[in-house]
Amino acid sequence: MTTTTTTRPSDDVTARTLLEANGKRFDVAMPRGVALQALLLARSDDLKCVDIMCQWVGDACACRLARALDRRGEALRVLDVSGNRLRALPSAVWAMRALEVLDASDNALTPADVPFDDLMDETKDVAPNLKVLNLRGNVAVIDGLEGRLREVVDAMARRGVKLVL
What we know:
By secondary structure, this protein is an alpha/beta fold. Helices cover 27% and strands 10% of the residues. Strands 1-2-3-4-5-6 form a six-stranded parallel β-sheet.
């Protein structure tokens, strides 16, 4: 197993709120422009849905996260959405090529929210640079793996991903 150390991005490429992510001048197309590298939304009210047509209005919702990732997720290396009681992760998470660390611990995710089969298959281009996947506290994810837990942990380790359950 290869151990990989990831460094935390500096404050100038880090956002701790969705407003901050949208407000900073993160634009790789600009001269000397920078891209957002870390989005730290642990226990954040920013993910609470305000769309009165949504069934999750008032609760944490993946749609707000999906919009932020569509706008600013291109170079994201660190995504922390821990402790938000999210019921889903947007599919955009798994398409992020630069993502190294995903902390989705202490949410309400299910096995359907984590594409383990694709993550285990090294021929798939799913989160290709992922080094740490923290799913601790998502009981349904662990329960859903049933007899596959050892297989998943071993396959992720071979891929160089530290899986935290």
